[in-house]
Design brief:
Length: 111
């Protein structure tokens, strides 16, 4: 039985198809780069800091519920959302993904 295709597989394939061959066919373990290790540390700090309920401005609405490492599947495509903020009163959810990169000079509309 084939494993499901993950978001990491698609990103790795777009970067270099050999990575997917080495990790999925030959089953070589993939080591983390320095940038990935920094991202994992930042993710841990974020989780510790957001585990407390922080209310910046009390507008009377309940605080957002936080859920971490939620798997999402659609057919053979599988990925993991790092954090989802859930507003149960409005039936809305806001997914967050962690990225380790430099701060852009301006905030773009699509961010």
């Amino acid at each position: 039985m084939m494993d499901k295709i993950t978001a990491a597989d698609i990103m790795n394939y777009a970067y270099c198809p050999r990575i997917v061959y080495f990790t999925r066919v030959i089953k070589l373990p993939q080591t983390k780069s320095a940038k990935q290790r920094i991202g994992v540390k930042k993710e841990g700090v974020f989780k510790r800091q957001t585990s407390r309920s922080k209310i910046v401005q009390d507008d009377g609405s309940p605080p957002l519920e936080k859920k971490y490492n939620i798997p999402l599947e659609w057919g053979d495509f599988v990925t993991k959302v790092d954090c989802i903020l859930i507003n149960s009163s409005k039936h809305e959810a806001y997914p967050l993904q962690f990225k380790n990169t430099s701060k852009p000079p301006i905030v773009y509309r699509t961010q």
